[in-house]
Write a structure and sequence with these properties.
Helix content is 32%, strand content 19%. By secondary structure, it is of the alpha/beta class. The chain folds into two domains: 294 residues, Alpha-Beta Barrel (TIM Barrel); 93 residues, no CATH class. Helix 9 runs parallel beside helix 10.
């Protein structure tokens, strides 16, 4: 007898092939495919999937859930989209391996991205951190080793090149982290302290990643050299000289790159033509989200987050740096504060930096500095830096896969936190017909599983892990908006994680079957 029988549905298996009629049975945490008449098949429970699509669970390859999945383990914003696996540790920012002292500093440093929830922060190694996700969250979790972690453990928080012995120490840490289950190395080359790493350092680290069978995932330096394409050239060089597969995070045409997606994609095509294994992800939105402290000069982070906070309070230094973030401060009326930590500043959520400055009768730079100080850096915002015409070009490229890049904090998050995958299925596939439904599902399932080495996931095949989403192709849609972002989608009817029913008729069952997915497992 099976545990569950999903009958009457159309299976779109994640391969990119067209759908076919087949019943799907679940036994334990595995899939079994049943063709023909299944009326005599016995199961403890049944799901009527008539008129519905049965697909592999979606894999979100760029998330910021490294703390909030532990603090809010039901993870409804993701599970109710059909996401069954999340990759964390992106942008070179994360929480292992770290000493107790550096973990506390990193929590402050990243609080505008991940919050600072009340948790028992009792881990130090990658293995210990991953174990925290074992049957304590609703979704599966895979971890990329953030280069910031290994850098502060060897070089410290200072803005300087690594010495020969420090680089050797970092390489040893990469090898150990990969042996403990990390699936690759991530960088966020606009975010200190990871951004303090030079190209040579990253090439050497990626040589170890390649030896261990991992992937290099990078938020490129958009401010490098020409401020346009040199960041992509650096990623190209790292892949070429290290032999490591390269994956570019949230491939996005920011304001300086608007209308130049063809040239951006040409770098990917050139790399692939020269034998570099290069892929990328993106989200289907025109607005990006990040931490407000990105407005600060990077060198002000030398010494760590408390050094930055001290400089932000120094009036002379504030005057000295006024205007140094001209690109950001030139868009104050497009920067919407999405999250603050204190109740006293909650009124700022949903307002632009320009509106907040006007309300306080302050200069925008003083407004940013004061808000960062009051919130101990824990401020997030989103801004409309992209154009949907560019987004539509990017998402149809053959090397592309979808992600949410969702921040799980704040009262007014970017709607991608709640609506990314249903938006693809509804608005992009059904509404605009930018790609076929099987191809969209492939970009959410088997392609990311293949890219990140997530075995037994991403396809509906006999004996694969039973991560499944059952949705209504006629109604599925993301309803979250910028004005009302915390709205769950329509049409995601059932979600299974490791064979356990987590979403039933659109509601969370309370089950926490998620496991850490370690490299090679």
């Amino acid at each position: 007898m099976f545990d569950v029988l999903i009958h009457g549905g159309t299976v779109i298996d994640g391969s990119g092939n067209v759908g076919y009629k087949c019943d799907v049975a679940v036994q334990g945490d595995r899939i079994h495919l049943l063709n023909g008449d299944t009326s005599s098949v016995k199961a403890h429970s049944q799901v009527d999937a008539s008129e519905l699509i049965v697909a592999p669970g979606f894999i979100d390859v760029h998330t910021h859930s490294g703390l909030m999945s532990l603090a809010e383990p039901e993870n409804e914003p993701k599970l109710r989209q059909g996401v069954t696996t999340e990759v964390i540790g992106l942008d070179g920012l994360g929480y292992a391996p770290l000493s107790h002292e550096n973990l506390e500093l990193m929590l402050v440093r990243n609080s505008g991205l991940d919050g600072y929830p009340s948790l028992d922060y009792n881990w130090s190694s990658v293995a210990q951190y991953l174990e925290r996700f074992n049957h304590s969250t609703s979704a599966n979790t895979a971890y990329l080793l953030p280069n910031s972690c290994i850098r502060v453990e060897t070089v410290g928080w200072e803005n300087r090149p690594a010495t020969t012995s420090e680089l050797a120490g970092m390489k040893d840490m990469v090898r150990q982290a990969m042996n403990e289950g990390a699936i690759g190395l991530s960088t966020g080359l606009q975010y200190p302290p990871g951004s303090f790493a030079n190209t040579t350092e990253l090439i050497e680290l990626c040589k170890v990643v390649a030896e261990c069978g991992g992937v290099y995932v990078t938020h490129v330096r958009y401010d490098l050299g020409d401020g346009l394409f040199d960041g992509f050239r650096e990623a190209f060089k790292i892949g070429l000289l290290s032999g490591c597969p390269v994956h570019i995070s949230h491939f996005f045409a920011t304001i300086p790159l608007r209308g130049q997606t063809g040239r951006m994609l040409a770098f990917v095509d050139e790399a692939r033509s020269k034998g570099i294994d290069m892929t990328f992800d993106s989200y289907p939105w025109e607005a990006g989200s990040t931490m407000l402290d990105i407005a600060c000069p990077q060198e002000d982070y030398s010494g760590g987050p408390y050094a930055l906070l001290s400089l932000l309070q120094d009036k002379q230094h504030r005057e000295k740096t006024r205007g140094q973030s001209s690109q950001i401060l030139g868009n104050i009326d497009g920067m919407v504060v999405s999250s603050v930590g204190t109740e006293g500043n909650k009124w700022c959520e949903g307002l632009t930096v320009g509106a907040i400055a006007q309300k306080l009768n302050k200069d925008p730079w003083d407004t940013i500095c004061d808000l960062l100080v009051e919130e101990r850096l824990g401020v997030a915002y989103y801004s409309f830096g992209g154009d949907m015409n560019d987004v539509k070009v990017i998402i149809t490229h053959s090397a592309h896969m979808f992600c949410s890049d969702a921040l799980r904090i704040g009262g007014m998050p970017n709607p991608r936190t709640y609506a990314t995958y249903p938006k693809v299925l509804g608005q992009i596939v059904r509404g605009e017909r930018l790609m076929s439904l099987p191809e969209a599902i492939r970009k959410m399932t088997s392609f990311p599983a293949q890219r990140f080495g997530l075995r037994d996931r991403g396809l509906i095949r006999e004996g694969m892990k039973a991560d499944l989403v059952v949705f209504n192709p006629a109604t599925v849609s993301g309803v979250a908006t910028y004005a009302k972002p915390r709205q769950f989608p329509l049409g995601i009817e059932y979600v299974f994680v490791n064979g356990q029913l987590v979403i039933e008729q659109g509601r969370h069952t309370g089950a926490l079957p998620g496991v850490p997915i370690r490299r090679g497992l």
